[in-house]
Amino acid sequence: MKLVKSLLLGSAAGLIAVGGAQAADLPVKAKAVEYVKICSLYGAGFYYIPGTDTCIKLGGYLRAEVGLGTNSIYGIANGSPAGAHNRLSNYYTMRAREDLNIDTRTATEYGVVRTFFDATFSWTTGGFVATGSGTGGTQYTSGVALNAAGTGLVGGTTINPTDGGTSGGSLGVYYAFIQFAGFTMGKAVSQFDAPWTNYPGNNIDSLVGGSGTVTGVNQFTYTADFGQGVTAAFSAEDATAYYQAGNLNMTGATAAGILAGSYGTNAIGGSRSPNLVGMVRVDQAWGLFQASVAAHDNHVGYYGATELTGHPDDKWGWAVQLALSIKNIPTGAGDTINIQGVYTDGATRYNFQNLAGSSYQMFGSSGIAYQSVGFANAPDTVYVTGSSQETVKTWGFRGAYTHNWDPYWNTALYGAYAQAQFGTLAKTTLCGVGGVFVTGAALAGVTSCNPDFAIGQVGIITRWTPVKNLTFSADLNWTHLDQKYSGTVGPIGPSGTSAKPAAVYELKDQDSITLLLRAQRNW
């Protein structure tokens, strides 16, 4: 009996133990999941970062495009070798690009604290850079843009010939700034720029006639908001990245260099002062009006190779710009006119903006010589050894009219014009009192010598948006170099990597036609 009782008690204890273990394994009620919440304080697309009171918005686009008639995606064929119009000139350049931007905002007792970051990841099929003649003497680069002279690519790297550069590409940081209590600190669009920067109605970057820092410029800015759509800003902006068109010592000018659009030795000195910018803007339902001014310090190095050669004093340049946008004009809902005009004196980049460039060497046909050539250069200042700096004056404008045919199609007509005017020192040094070149016998055929020039541009772009945020576009642009030289030069071989021989060239106006085709998906 005792044995039976012991077995029963043991079995009961075992069942109780097993039941307790199973109860411990049963699921318990979980804590509520903290889902990402919509932040409605700053518009659509913002969400709270979990566990914080900061709102974040992600955005960007993916773009595929091809540029025809240019040695880079957006630039006109105005330098070497693109302007050579020969077998070294690219007929097309292709690019794929992903853009990512991150916008964060936090409400504080001092107002909203905002950070904004925008970067691009690009793969470009290569700008052509001639490094010599014959087999193995040329290379393609994966850079993002040609330099001002058209002889190399800014930020370019040689594609690995063993794998075609499939692991290459480029990273571009467009914007990275903090905004707090009216201050903007970091890389952002210049306060001088019109709101449409380089794009009054088009895609191509290379329009003259105004400022345009589409990839941002480092700055420290204070913006005051007076209400009723009226704002004003004062800004100190980095001058070294985008705003130095050149300070040329013309003592170093050569005949071959002049034909390549170089009027001397560029002798920009170290950084001294940022550009000082002021802006007033009125935003209303009908559009906007903006007035901008800028001051630019032209600080050069020495006349020669050492400190003992001396140097010219600094020369301040300046620029002023007016911009006007008129919305919803009677031709159709959403139709817009954007126009701006600018005048500069010793601050050329506020007219011949960085992506347009200010140095030209373009070739074409001729009925009296081997070929024709057009060349020009618009620096900030010029001087000769022993002299002070002389500023170069420019003026220009650009604008566009955009018409919406229906919700899916729109077309923009756009144009731009800029003129550069040199002073007495430049004209006397380059052309002499009689108005003909004085730099060498090779230029004896010149019948009229004048470094002044103008750039005229017109274009049309049509966009089709079959579904929301997916747009296909075609942008056709014509650029005309109106140079003031006439006659012939030579026999001479122009400097640069254009493969042009020593021959007689006719001095003549030149043209460039480009077509930009693009597909873009915004998200």
From TrEMBL:
One of its GO terms (molecular function) is porin activity. It is found in: Cell outer membrane. Residues 1-23 form the signal peptide. The keyword Oxidoreductase does not apply. Pfam families: Porin_2 (PF02530). Keywords: Cell outer membrane, Ion transport, Membrane, Porin, Signal, Transmembrane, Transmembrane beta strand, Transport. GO terms for biological process: monoatomic ion transport. It is a multi-pass membrane protein. One of its GO terms (cellular component) is pore complex. Its main location: membrane. Belongs to the alphaproteobacteria porin family. Forms passive diffusion pores that allow small molecular weight hydrophilic materials across the outer membrane. Consists of 16-stranded beta-barrel sheets, with large surface-exposed loops, that form a transmembrane pore at the center of each barrel. The pore is partially ocluded by a peptide loop that folds into the pore lumen. This is Porin. It comes from Bradyrhizobium vignae.
